[in-house]
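Lecture 7 notes: from sequence to structure.

We start with a single chain of 280 residues. Read the sequence below before looking at the structure.
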Amino acid sequence: MTLTEIRQILEESNIRLTKSLGQNFLHDGNQLRRIVETGKLVAEDSVLEIGPGLGPLTEQLIPACQRVLAIEKDERLVSVLSKRFIESENLELIHADALAYLRREKERDWSDWKLVANLPYSVGSPILVELALAPRNPARLVATLQWEVVQRIKAKPGTKDYGVLSLLLQLGYVAESSFKVPAGCFFPRPDVASACVALQRRERPLLVGGDIDLYVKLVKVGFGQRRKVMLKLLKNLWPESALQAAYEQVGIGLQVRAEAVSVEQFVSLAQALSNNAPSK
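Now the structure, written as tokens:
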């Protein structure tokens, strides 16, 4: 789908794009093909696309896999997509708020699915977290987001970008690759830099069951006040004696800040504290 085609469809359908929905359509064919290639799709794959817009990525996904489930919030765009792909039998189009849909379908089995999407920037991070922490999460996540968000997703301990998003996604996934997508490849041109990131699900989960909830709580509380010593923040939920014992078991210092604690150390800390329920 070219820029001329996008302009023509919008004009013929009398659609004015809504900035609050993050409607910036990627139209560059080379970038679209690169995103699909990053998905490592095979003919038997089922693909989830969130925010298809006018369908420039959708039209490349349809012939590349067995099934495409596309979720679009804007009813005007759903109408356009329904007409554009009326003969595409392997496309299921849903008119819904994607984040609300994923939360309603929390128990859905996504384990054989792949996400390949140019995510709406306003909700890109929570959508990825929702999928990554699902009980049966997708095998692969390929998403176009703000460049700064991609940097946070890939960040390592001790860096300024390392934080809650890094830890929630890296629990179940390994950041495999990323590449920048120039602003001129979108219509309208976004005000922020963009990038596509690929996350591959870990072969063996680091945590399962209730320990995941405990891990999430540890991470969020630990980063509640980034510059504070993590122990002081966690003392609001666990007895200091239990925390000190867990710290010693994991091998981290009592004066450490959350930004210096690795994914694996947070995992070990969650396991060490699993028999000591939070006090509140």
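The mean pLDDT is 94. Keep this in mind for problem set 3.
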